[in-house]
Fold these 2 entries.
Entry 1:
Amino acid sequence: MAGADTLTLSDDTFEKEVLESKTPVLVDFWAEWCGPCRTLAPVIDEIATEYAGKLKVGKLDIDANQQTAVHYGIQSIPTVVVFVNGEPAHKLIGLQPKSSFKKLIDELLAS
């Protein structure tokens, strides 16, 4: 359920792809059964394409990767967390419009 520019993350790849990344990483915590997550999926893929090279974008299925979801206290989905230098810097919970993500990312990349 990820587009060409969107990484599929797992408990095994999270450290390498997110925590060790030199660029900011937007992570969509989702699950297959979550309707709002499926609604958000194309927006996440669009963001991945629009910000390719400036921002990594990945999706983590919380059912298949419970260790990471628990570690970051994910209790509601969809939850999108932006990691900067391996640390969670911003969190958006629930279905958000694309403009909310773009505003956050643009501010982050400008700083």
Entry 2:
Amino acid sequence: MTLRCKDGDIAVITWDYPECLENIGRLVQVRGPVTNDPDGQPSWLIKTVTSELYSFRERDGSIAQEHLDWCSRIEHPDAWMLPISPEQEPDGVADAQQTPNHLANGEPQHEQP
């Protein structure tokens, strides 16, 4: 089984249930061990890393919102998250993070090859 995330990663939510689509783009930290959710998808425990409320499905199907910590015991499918660990950054992300420094220093921006 190939997983996208690993224990301790910070990940961005890329998909969620229709009732919880406001979570897309939010940052979470993932924690193992990996378990299978009721649909059989490998899932991680998550906690929010920002102050935004996180929407999730309760076991009875209702929707709740809260700031998640590890005690919340909320899981999210691995396939619905994208880790943003420095060693896994797509090409150009590190350069894009430097752009504000270049602008602040008045340095010209360089074209990527």
